[in-house]
């Protein structure tokens, strides 16, 4: 395994924090099984966000107020260096309450032992929300004379609105619910794992969660939509005096606009890293095979490679997400290919073979060939479709015959008003039609024919789809992709991280030696791959902590 991968990890990242020289990641974890249940907090530490050491589980369901699970929570580093953790406990009656925990020994940089506060639960559901719709407290931010904590919920009396409640507290024990909701969006349902943080609009420096609002600061509101299992965000303005946040673009509000990731990525959470003055995003990447398969393999779910998040100063309308720079230290043997012309309908193999790769590619197209209107990643035939100017891009985790492949690509089209649109897509489909075709070819003895691809996997029992989004491309920009490939995951970033797509794929034919290809399915004209750099990635060495690690 390469990069940042955690076996047996179950789901949501919890309370990420930098404490006394260590990055800590807690996570929703079922120590007994590869399926959800018996939720405790797993715990791992790292010096560099890449090499991780597992520690014993931190908190288990051992009180009446978390008997049904120690659910998601967040950490707040107080100015005096103390750490306060708020988490949701699900009681035996499945009431969601908020609880306070703190390090039993604050001098221990590993934070091995945690104490649950004697006054728990510190917050119970207010009368206006359902007992099962009150969870996942955020990192607290300081405004005026008190800490503020946001909690996600839903309001069915207002057309199934997702809402964010904000509480004011001085001591993390007593709370006052602020009037109104910080924000709500009708029709979006329960908001899980809300995140709320400032971003600088004039620099790429990350901001502490308590950084005050101001002309050069906007606030990001993120919600994980329980109804569709995607993480949506919007950028807007926070007015603490009115307990209100409003998006810059109401038509792209939380839950109806931008997603962090257009693939498999959920329950994410950011933290401010004071060591490198950056904001880092963690997200849970679940499996897309069956629970039966997860039980058989004995583990389920990954954490995506941690990403820095910054405001995109060029577009002014989205975040840029990018794998933390430390991941680049895993790059070993690298190869570069320059100015590869991709004729219409061509597939060009690249001479690299490894299952763990970091790929950076840049394309230029001849826009005079532009013709098509109305392209859609999910419904326009995926990577196998053909249009005037796309799809073109890369095939990764492919076998030599391309019976299996995962396609990461662009499609350049036109809007009805004549403007140019660029779609960024990832195709992991397994088209039954192709399987039938191949069976027929075999039955008819057409051996040696060029076989159509089965896409990412020949295996059955998988949920596969074509993911995608429009991606902003500004005048003068080339089309750029970064693709992180590991054995069963492909994490892709377009245009410097304006849009991201993560896929879980389960290739059966690559046997550790995967192939990658450039491809161009456009019918009208060549595409040039200006450059593609491919690095094989070293193993990240993720293992249990042992005594020798104390001195590192
Ligand atoms: N997972 C936790 C909840 C949260 C959900 C329970 C999101 O606290 O809302 O395991 O995946």
UniProtKB/TrEMBL annotation:
SUPFAM superfamilies: Arabinanase/levansucrase/invertase, Concanavalin A-like lectins/glucanases. Residues 326-536 form the Glycosyl hydrolase family 32 C-terminal domain. Signal peptide: none annotated. GO terms for molecular function: hydrolase activity, hydrolyzing O-glycosyl compounds. Pfam families: Glyco_hydro_32C (PF08244), Glyco_hydro_32N (PF00251). GO terms for biological process: carbohydrate metabolic process. Keywords: Glycoprotein, Glycosidase, Hydrolase. SMART domains: Glyco_32. This is Uncharacterized protein. It comes from Zingiber officinale (Ginger). Belongs to the glycosyl hydrolase 32 family. Residues 11-323 form the Glycosyl hydrolase family 32 N-terminal domain.
């Amino acid at each position: 395994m390469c990069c940042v991968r955690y076996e047996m990890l179950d789901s949501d990242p919890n309370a990420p924090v930098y404490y006394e020289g260590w990055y800590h990641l807690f996570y929703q974890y079922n120590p007994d099984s590869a399926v959800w249940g018996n939720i405790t907090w797993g715990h791992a530490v790292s010096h560099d966000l890449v090499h991780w050491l597992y520690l014993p589980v931190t908190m288990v369901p051992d009180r009446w107020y978390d008997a049904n699970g120690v659910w998601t929570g967040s950490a707040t580093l107080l100015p005096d260096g103390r750490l306060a953790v708020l988490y949701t406990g699900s009681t035996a009656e499945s009431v969601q309450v908020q609880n306070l925990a703190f390090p039993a020994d604050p001098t221990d940089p590993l934070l091995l032992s945690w104490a649950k506060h004697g006054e728990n639960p510190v917050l119970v559901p207010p009368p206006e929300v359902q007992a099962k719709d009150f969870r996942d407290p955020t990192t607290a931010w300081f405004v005026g004379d008190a800490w503020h904590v946001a909690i996600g919920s839903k309001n069915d009396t207002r057309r199934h609105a997702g809402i964010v409640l904000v509480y004011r507290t001085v001591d993390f024990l007593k709370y006052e619910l602020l009037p109104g909701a910080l924000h709500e969006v009708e029709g979006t349902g329960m908001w899980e794992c809300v995140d709320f943080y400032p971003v600088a609009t004039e620099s790429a420096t990350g901001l502490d969660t308590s950084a005050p609002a101001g002309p050069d600061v906007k606030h990001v509101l993120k919600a994980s939509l329980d109804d569709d299992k995607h993480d949506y965000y919007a950028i807007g303005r926070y007015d603490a005096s009115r307990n209100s946040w409003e998006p810059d673009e109401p038509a792209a509000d939380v839950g109806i606009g931008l997603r962090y990731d257009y693939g498999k990525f959920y329950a994410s959470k950011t933290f401010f890293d004071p060591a490198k003055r950056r904001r880092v995003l963690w997200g849970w990447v679940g499996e897309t095979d069956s629970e039966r398969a997860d039980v058989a393999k004995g583990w389920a779910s990954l954490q995506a490679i941690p990403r820095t998040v910054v405001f995109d100063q060029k577009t002014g309308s989205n975040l840029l997400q990018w794998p933390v720079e430390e991941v680049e230290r895993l790059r070993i043997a690298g190869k570069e290919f320059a100015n590869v012309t991709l004729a219409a309908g061509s597939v060009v193999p690249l001479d690299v073979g490894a299952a763990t790769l970091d790929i950076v590619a840049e394309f230029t197209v001849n826009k005079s060939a532009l013709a098509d209107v109305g392209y859609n990643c999910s419904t326009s035939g995926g990577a196998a479709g053909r249009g005037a100017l796309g799809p073109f891009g890369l095939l990764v985790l492919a076998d030599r015959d391309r019976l299996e492949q995962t396609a990461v690509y662009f499609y350049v089209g036109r809007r009805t008003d004549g403007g140019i649109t660029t779609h960024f897509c990832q195709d992991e489909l397994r088209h039954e039609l192709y399987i039938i075709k191949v069976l027929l070819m075999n039955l008819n003895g057409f051996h040696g024919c060029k076989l159509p691809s089965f896409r990412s996997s020949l295996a059955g029992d998988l949920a596969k789809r074509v993911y995608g989004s429009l991606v902003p491309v500004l005048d003068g920009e080339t089309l750029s992709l970064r693709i992180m490939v590991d054995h069963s995951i492909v994490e892709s970033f377009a245009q410097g991280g304006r849009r991201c797509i993560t896929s879980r794929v389960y290739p059966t034919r690559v046997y550790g030696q995967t192939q990658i290809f450039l491809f161009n399915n456009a019918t009208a004209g060549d595409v040039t791959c200006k450059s593609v750099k491919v690095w094989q990635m070293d193993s990240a060495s993720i293992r249990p902590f042992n005594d020798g690690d104390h001195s590192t």
